[in-house]
Design brief:
alpha/beta; Amidase signature (AS) enzymes; eleven-stranded mixed beta sheet; 15 helices; about 40% helix; binds glutamine; Amidase; glutaminyl-tRNA synthase (glutamine-hydrolyzing) activity; Amidase_dom
């Protein structure tokens, strides 16, 4: 692996600014690394080789720009973020040939900051899944052990960063899809507060849950990428109009004195694999040694979170995905003779099994006969869940817990959809409550030798505090390094 690819985004961005590394060198190093590792990892649906090189050449000619914090930095996007003129599939056959004519706001902000997009990452179809096994194209593998899943749904984004193919990737998180693959692949993944980053140009799954976020090899890198993307956007009325703090300035604290960390008893009990528990407890002990105070808290409705999430997410998905009908968007069956046959056959051919399952269930919970029993009930539980967090945050600044009950499992291990839904137990509550959450790699599990991620969650818009605590911990634990590939 070229030395350039071993650098963090923050390091390479600084070297690009001084001219020590040229934009062409950075892009070439990444493209070489992609070539060498893609046969095993399969993280990317699209690689933008020539285009990226051309862009880098033009940028080198003009010279670095101090006002552009990501100048010359190669990045990858999850393939549900619209990138002008680039195929954007959502890992679905139904969008196989979809080429947006506009950039998502998050993407145009990255470009304005000087980033070079070099690829589009594989994912679970329409972001539905936790392992990237639901992609209509191929399965992405975990760079730490290619027999294992990278997590999902942003599994391609996590794998490309972990494998050193780029310096950061964007993922999206509806119920854990940034934090889960970040945890399984040993990288940093941050799901910001709902409304912190514009969702314009993000092809929606569950609109009231979806958030875009950075996936990187260090906390500082995540802060840099978040800084560029955060803020109100007139094109997304749910993006919040509150000031964006200086996330980088928040980093570098000496210790964790004055910080209170809540440990929810529902997250630290039964069901947690021993190796995960051991790694996480060591991380919490480290936080205490750094001066943090820990207190037990309770998120009593955790048991209901899965049912609540899957009702709401499927309901919203069934509505969002109705636009893919072969007329306005998406694959069309050209042989059907009647209109209704055309809709049915186009959608049957275009959507995979998991997506169809969710459209059916989502339509069911929204139907007039069952709306009150399911959707309405779920909306009420969601509000109570939010209150649970509010109460917990009266006692602590941040919450710490697992991201997942286990480390990355083997490809094909979880064939039953329900089994797959259950592993989201610790991540979905943050989405239901709209709160920020992140995964920080804290070590390799003793039995599996696979990465373990610690989850931090905080009150709305507490990203600066969360990043600063995470960076202090990161600096004080043994770095995990990169997988050998
Ligand atoms: N695993 C969850 C689901 O399938 C979360 C996915 C996500 O966050 N996009 O819905």
């Amino acid at each position: 692996m070229s030395d350039i690819c071993k650098k963090t985004l923050s390091e390479v961005a600084a070297m690009l600014q001084t001219g020590e590394v040229k934009a062409v060198d950075a892009v070439t190093a990444c493209l070489d690394r992609i070539k060498a590792t893609e046969p095993q990892v399969k993280a990317l649906i699209t690689v933008l080789g020539e285009e990226a090189l051309k862009q880098a050449e033009a940028m080198d000619e003009a010279g670095p720009r101090a006002d552009k914090p990501l100048w010359g930095v190669p990045l990858v996007l999850k393939d549900l973020l619209a990138a002008k003129g680039t195929r954007t599939t959502c890992a679905s056959k139904i969008l196989d040939d979809f080429v947006p004519f506009y950039d998502a706001t998050a993407v145009s902000k990255l470009r304005d900051a000087g980033a070079i997009i070099i690829g589009k990452a594989n994912m679970d179809e329409f972001a539905m899944g936790s392992s990237t096994e639901n992609s209509a194209y191929f399965q992405t593998r975990n760079p730490w052990d290619t027999d294992r899943v990278p997590g999902g749904s942003s599994g391609g984004s996590a794998a490309t960063v972990a494998a050193g193919q780029c310096f950061a990737a964007l993922g999206t998180d509806t119920g854990g899809s940034i934090r889960t693959p970040a945890s399984f692949c040993g990288i940093v993944g941050l799901k910001p507060t709902y409304g912190r980053i514009s969702r314009f140009g993000l092809i929606a799954y569950g609109s009231s849950l979806d958030q875009i976020g950075p996936m990187t090899r260090s906390v500082e890198d995540a802060a840099r990428v978040l800084q560029v993307m955060a803020g109100h956007d007139p094109k997304d009325s749910t993006s919040v109009e509150i000031e964006v703090p200086d996330y980088l300035a928040a980093l570098g604290r000496e210790n964790l004195e004055g910080v209170t960390i809540g440990l929810p008893k529902e997250y630290w009990g039964e069901g947690l694999d021993e190796e995960v528990e051991v790694s996480l407890k060591a991380a919490v002990a480290k936080m205490e040694a750094l001066g943090a105070k820990t207190v037990p808290v309770s998120l009593g409705l955790t048991d209901y979170a899965i049912a609540t999430y899957y009702i709401i997410a499927m309901a919203e998905a069934s509505s969002n995905l109705s636009r893919f009908d072969g007329v306005r968007f998406g694959h069309r069956n050209t042989e059907a003779e009647e209109l209704i046959d055309m809709y049915t056959s186009s959608r049957t051919e275009g959507f995979g099994d998991e997506v169809q399952r969710r459209i059916i269930m989502g339509t069911y919970v929204l139907s007039s006969g069952y709306y009150d029993a399911y959707y309405n009930k779920a909306a009420k539980v969601r509000r109570l869940l939010r209150e649970d967090f509010e109460k917990a945050f009266e006692q602590c600044d941040l919450i710490a817990g697992p991201v997942l009950p286990t480390t990355a499992f083997k490809v094909g291990d979880k064939v039953d959809p329900l089994q797959m839904y259950l592993i989201d137990i610790f991540t979905i509550s943050a989405n239901l409550a709209g709160l920020p959450g992140m995964s920080l790699p804290v070590g390799l599990g003793k039995t599996s030798a696979m990465p373990v991620g610690l989850q931090l969650m905080g009150p709305a818009f507490s990203e600066a505090e969360m990043l600063s605590v995470a960076e202090c911990l990161e600096r004080n634990i043994e770095p995990m390094g990169m997988p050998e590939l």
